[in-house]
TrEMBL record:
<dbReference type="InterPro" id="IPR038277">
    <property type="entry name" value="UreF_sf"/>
</dbReference>
<dbReference type="Pfam" id="PF01730">
    <property type="entry name" value="UreF"/>
</dbReference>
<keyword id="KW-0143">Chaperone</keyword>
<dbReference type="InterPro" id="IPR002639">
    <property type="entry name" value="UreF"/>
</dbReference>
<protein>
    <submittedName>
        <fullName>Urease accessory protein</fullName>
    </submittedName>
</protein>
<keyword id="KW-0996">Nickel insertion</keyword>
Length: 227
């Protein structure tokens, strides 16, 4: 029951982590010229690129957190962060991920201040990328690695759907169906993530338009979302 509850908590946008201020890049994409009719395709592209990397990284972070105490977790976390940085060319996307990661880490340390993995992560990475913080917090909460990967994918899809309701005139049921229609893709991404054995296995799919849109978004003075 605790593991199931942990999965629900990690996927809840109402958690005090700052996620409500992020649109998974949708606002930047629409302002950059993405037609409204292509938002479902945008959502699935995010799952194949950003979410695929995040889910795999979360699985690795989850495993590091659960390793024996004598393992050098600090260097493993730093190495994983460097790998994520190398696979996220746009500084704006890296910054957004670290803002969310800092919020997750802060929440985790508030709930479990004496927990070793969270303390080690805070020591070496005060603002870790979101999937690292999510993977470690999932381990602390008792969720398994598949729950961490699923939370990454669900949050990605639901962030796009929720942001679309604020940015576009549309029926909320339509946005909900986008998420449901992505179920098979989410399953595939989660399975791929669970097969990630080392940093060398992390995916590195290119998303140049998303990266450019995110960079441009940071220069805009009128916007609803941070990213």
């Amino acid at each position: 029951m605790k593991a199931s509850l942990a999965g629900l908590l990690l996927a809840d946008a109402r958690l005090p982590t700052g996620a409500h201020a992020h649109s998974s890049g949708l606002e930047a994409a629409l302002l950059g010229g993405l037609p409204a009719g292509q938002v479902p395709g945008y959502l699935q592209s995010r799952l194949r690129t950003t979410a695929a990397l995040d889910a795999s990284a979360a699985v690795l972070a989850h495993r590091i957190a659960n390793e024996a105490a004598q393992v050098d977790k600090v260097s493993r976390f730093v190495e994983l962060e460097a790998a994520l940085t190398a696979r996220t060319p746009a500084p704006a996307m890296r910054q957004a991920s670290r803002q969310l990661g800092r919020g997750l880490l802060r929440l985790g340390r508030s709930l479990y201040p004496a927990t070793e993995p969270l303390g080690m992560l805070a020591t070496c990475l005060p603002a870790p990328s979101r999937p690292i913080a999510l993977g470690v917090l999932a381990a602390v909460l008792g969720s398994d690695a598949s729950g961490a990967a699923l939370a990454c994918c669900y949050d990605e899809a639901q962030s796009v759907a929720a942001a679309a309701l604020k940015l576009l005139p549309m029926d909320p049921a339509v946005a909900t169906k986008w998420v449901l229609d992505s179920a098979e893709l989410i399953d595939a991404v989660v399975c791929q993530a669970l097969d990630t054995d080392s940093i060398r296995d992390l995916p590195a799919a290119s998303a140049p338009w998303m990266e450019q849109w995110s960079q441009d978004h940071g220069t805009r003075t009128r916007r609803l979302f941070i990213a």
